[in-house]
Q: What sequence folds into this?
């Protein structure tokens, strides 16, 4: 889980203070041999604030 928050307003980067975006994900890794492994991942990402 990843949450991005801005502590202060920034005119330079056109960002407001507060939560910016959130990302939640799951991943699965299955090792067939030591050299070979399958990896599958999915995630959900949501922008919560306006950014330029």
A:
């Amino acid at each position: 889980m990843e949450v991005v928050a801005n502590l202060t307003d920034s005119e330079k980067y056109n960002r407001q203070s507060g939560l910016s975006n959130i990302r939640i994900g799951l991943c699965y890794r299955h090792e067939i041999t030591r050299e070979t492994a399958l990896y599958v991942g999915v995630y959900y990402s949501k922008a919560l604030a306006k950014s330029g």
Notes: The beta strands are 2-6, 18-31, 37-47. The chain has a mean pLDDT of 83. The first strand starts at residue 2 and ends at 6.
